[in-house]
Write a structure and sequence with these properties.
mainly alpha, rod-shaped, single chain
Length: about 120
């Protein structure tokens, strides 16, 4: 006589896989350049200063090119700000309620896990 098969109970159990959260990049540390406004009135003084400070080498741009550079910098800032918002959103929705963390304006976590 063959034994009667046992009844098997199947259960589905949700197992949450922890999502590794990357560290936020350190804030940008920009250095401030020194700008010279040169006109015909101060050209000789400027040239003397440049000869003494940088062996006569300098770079120049027109006001229109300066405006383009300023526009480009604003575009970079916009892109970084929007990318940061996306990163913070995904960090927020992927963290468990117990491990929720706040991110400060400079991109640092308030949990103390980042340096």
């Amino acid at each position: 006589m063959t034994p009667k098969p046992r009844e098997v109970e199947i259960k589905t159990v949700e197992i949450r896989t922890p999502i590794q959260q990357p560290l936020m990049p350190r804030p940008i540390d920009m250095k401030e350049p020194h700008w010279y406004v040169v006109s015909e009135a101060n050209l000789e003084e400027f040239m003397e200063r440049i000869r003494n400070e940088s062996n006569g080498t300098f770079f120049a741009m027109t006001p229109g090119d300066y405006e383009l550079m300023a526009y480009n910098l604003q575009e970079i800032k916009r892109f970084v700000r929007e990318t940061r918002e996306v990163i913070i959103y995904y960090r927020t929705v992927t963290l468990d309620d117990e491990t929720q963390e706040e991110v400060t304006d400079d991109g640092r976590s308030t949990t103390g896990t980042e340096e």
